[in-house]
From TrEMBL:
Source species of the chain: Actinomadura rudentiformis
Protein's UniProt name: Acyl-coenzyme A thioesterase THEM4
Any one Pfam family match given in the protein's UniProt record, by short name: 4HBT
One Gene Ontology CC term in the entry: cytoplasm
InterPro entries documented for this protein: HotDog_dom_sf, THEM4/THEM5_acyl-CoA_thioest, Thioestr_dom
PANTHER family linked to this entry: ACYL-COENZYME A THIOESTERASE THEM4
Top enzyme class: hydrolase
Keywords, alphabetical: Apoptosis, Cell membrane, Cell projection, Cytoplasm, Fatty acid metabolism, Hydrolase, Lipid metabolism, Membrane, Transit peptide
Organism placement in taxonomy: Bacteria, Bacillati, Actinomycetota, Actinomycetes, Streptosporangiales
Length: 213
């Protein structure tokens, strides 16, 4: 394991996070997907007040059933040689997190972290467009994955954003991030979100710093 990977493992182990096997992850990921669909249905529903009240009570009963056995912290899956962590409950693409936008990040052979995704109305800011904070969150994660894939993971120390034009929701988007350079414990990474017309909507530059301990 690289020094960076070992350092990130120390950071995560100090949080006492459990690992799940593939079968457990798949089962909970399916549950999370059903809850995502529920979330969207809540925003769009036009059913009457009595039906809303009945559904509210059913949802409360389901929450009580799930809470019958609880972990103290959300689980993680593994730390790779480069320090890459699969954070199952991440608010960006975490398969167990029902509020996570569906952003699956893939690292390409040249080190670019890339994701193709479509955001629904749950992530709306201005009508018809993605909330700027959601774009920032997705870019922060993508930038962090690129830094990790470079063998230089760290904590976000700075995140600079330039919102060039509104990012539409309900259409396919692409986001990419790539390391520009490293200076000691600092890693500088650039990223952007690209709309369906091929034009950049948001640009970001971040500096990640590997904590000493
Ligand atoms: C694969 C998973 C991807 C995950 C992606 C998501 C990542 C996240 O969301 S991380 C959460 C958000 N970020 C945070 O909470 C970070 C909070 N801050 C910290 O933990 C610390 O301040 C940390 C680790 C950034 C730096 O702490 P520390 O190691 O003590 O840094 P320190 O020794 O003071 O500084 C190291 C260098 O970095 C510089 N630096 C540190 N912080 C900053 C900053 N905010 N701005 C500019 N420069 C900074 C210092 O000036 C110093 O530079 P030099 O070596 O040239 O003098």
């Amino acid at each position: 394991m690289t020094g960076a990977g070992a350092a990130m493992r120390r950071v995560l182990e100090s949080r006492e996070r459990a690992s799940l096997n593939g079968e457990q992850v798949a089962a909970l990921a399916e549950l999370a997907q059903r809850v995502r669909e529920l979330n969207e249905a809540v925003v769009h529903t036009e059913v009457g007040a009595d039906e809303v009240a009945a559904i509210r009570d059913e949802v409360a009963a389901l929450t009580a059933r799930l809470s019958a056995a609880r972990r103290e912290h959300p689980p993680l899956v593994g730390v790779g040689e480069d320090g890459t962590v699969r954070h199952l409950a991440s608010p960006v693409g975490g398969v167990l997190n029902p509020i996570a936008p569906p952003v699956a990040i893939v690292v390409q052979p040249d080190g670019t972290a890339r994701a193709e995704f479509t955001l629904n109305v749950l992530y709306e800011g201005p009508p018809g467009f993605v909330h700027g904070g959601v774009s920032a969150m997705i870019l922060d994660q993508l930038l962090g994955v690129a830094a990790s894939a470079n063998g230089t993971p760290g904590m976000t120390a700075t995140l600079d954003l330039r919102y060039r034009r509104p990012t539409p929701h309900g259409v396919p988007l692409v986001a990419e991030a790539k390391v520009d350079r490293t200076e000691g414990r600092k890693t500088f990474v650039d990223a952007r979100i690209i709309g369906p017309d091929g034009r950049t909507t948001v640009e970001a530059t971040a500096m990640f710093v590997m904590p000493l301990r």
